[in-house]
């Protein structure tokens, strides 16, 4: 028979493991059991042509536990991806977001399902937070039938697409915003600045988010960019630099950015200062252009999960046993999803020509690699 303490811990873990889509409503929910007032560090934000968000943040216990659970699951999922790649079950490129969890989690907890997010290939965490299952994400990486499609493989190409989505939102009169993410390595792309121009010209509800993890592939930001103050590079677009290793600061900044965009003020530029623990991709050891000491320093002093755990303890929002229960449940959930993804069969050849055009487009055929490889719909 289970003790009352174990039953309570199980209830906490179960509550924290609601789906990302259902918990997202916490951003606007009024029915919360208990709120905590948090004073963010004075260096959490730096602004350009706009006011900084308030450093006073009110957050519920449910939100704190949800953010903690989400980051733990995300890291476990990326650790599973790492293992599958090293086992040669994932082939080709694989870009992990280990260390950058606070960006995706903080963003999603400040948004609603009507807001849009578009990013590039380091997208596993965003896909999970937008409602993709762990099984579907891992199956996609494995090339299995249960996989979910996602990501954009052309550096920076998602940014003008995001501006186009924001244009559609304004055209349709929707009170929502589009967040277009790109890295410091893509920040010098001409199409990024073209998107800035169009967004400001038409005052679109577009928020451009630079995930500055300090290295574009193996090149340090100051070796590739003459101006590394990415939040100021919009020129005529106001900007905000954010501590991207603090999930609560990210949440506060994104809420501020959404309100800015949907209130008719036009676009805003966010720079999330973050850090990836691994290399650019799995084929990059990540230690040839930076020291192991630097990586360990960031892990020890700036880890987003450890930072939130410490904050939860300081607020007396949960006990160590409660967080351990969430950690244990996260490991079990990811382990089960990994086995489900591995068990999914590979797609058959007939799937090669699916989900390319909408059926309503009326496209009669699609040519393959050679003219003889023509598929007729």
TrEMBL record:
EC numbers for this chain: 1.2.4.1
Signal peptide feature range: none
Obligatory cofactor(s): thiamine diphosphate
CDD domains: TPP_E1_PDC_ADC_BCADC
Any one Gene Ontology BP term: pyruvate decarboxylation to acetyl-CoA
Class of this enzyme: oxidoreductase
Gene3D superfamilies linked to this entry: 3.40.50.970
Name of this chain's protein: Pyruvate dehydrogenase E1 component subunit alpha, mitochondrial
Lineage, broadest ranks: Eukaryota, Fungi, Fungi incertae sedis, Mucoromycota, Mortierellomycotina
């Amino acid at each position: 028979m289970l003790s009352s303490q174990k039953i309570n811990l199980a209830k906490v873990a179960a509550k924290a493991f609601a789906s990302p889509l259902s918990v997202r409503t916490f951003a606007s929910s009024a029915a919360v059991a208990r709120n905590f007032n948090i004073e963010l560090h004075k260096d959490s934000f730096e602004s350009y042509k706009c006011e900084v968000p308030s450093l006073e943040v009110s957050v519920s216990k449910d939100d704190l536990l949800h953010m903690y659970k989400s980051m733990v699951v995300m890291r476990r999922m990326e650790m599973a991806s790492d293992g599958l790649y090293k086992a040669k079950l994932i082939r080709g490129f694989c870009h992990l977001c280990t260390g950058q969890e606070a960006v995706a989690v903080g963003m999603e907890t400040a948004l609603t399902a009507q807001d849009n997010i578009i990013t590039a290939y380091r997208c596993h965490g965003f896909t999970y937070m937008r409602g993709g299952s762990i099984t579907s994400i891992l199956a996609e990486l494995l090339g299995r039938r249960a996989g979910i499609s996602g990501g954009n493989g052309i550096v920076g190409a998602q940014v003008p697409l995001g501006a186009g989505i924001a244009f559609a939102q304004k055209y349709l009169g929707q009170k929502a915003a589009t967040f277009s993410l790109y890295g410091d390595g893509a920040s010098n792309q001409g199409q990024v600045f073209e998107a800035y121009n169009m967004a400001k010209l038409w005052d679109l509800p577009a928020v451009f988010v630079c995930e500055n993890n300090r290295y574009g592939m193996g090149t340090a930001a100051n070796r590739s960019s003459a101006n590394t103050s990415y939040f100021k590079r919009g020129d005529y677009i106001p900007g905000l630099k954010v501590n991207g290793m603090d999930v609560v600061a990210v949440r506060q900044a994104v809420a501020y950015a959404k309100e800015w965009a949907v209130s008719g003020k036009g676009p805003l530029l966010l720079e999330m200062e973050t850090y990836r623990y691994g290399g650019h991709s799995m084929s990059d050891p990540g230690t040839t252009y930076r020291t192991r000491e630097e990586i360990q320093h960031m892990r020890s002093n700036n880890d987003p999960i450890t930072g939130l755990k410490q904050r939860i303890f300081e607020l007396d929002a949960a006990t160590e046993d409660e967080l351990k229960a969430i950690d244990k449940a996260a490991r079990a959930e990811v382990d089960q999803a990994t086995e489900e993804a591995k068990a999914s069969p590979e797609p058959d050849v007939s799937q090669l020509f699916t989900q390319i055009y909408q059926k309503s487009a009326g496209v009669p055929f699609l040519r393959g690699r050679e003219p003889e490889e023509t598929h007729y719909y």
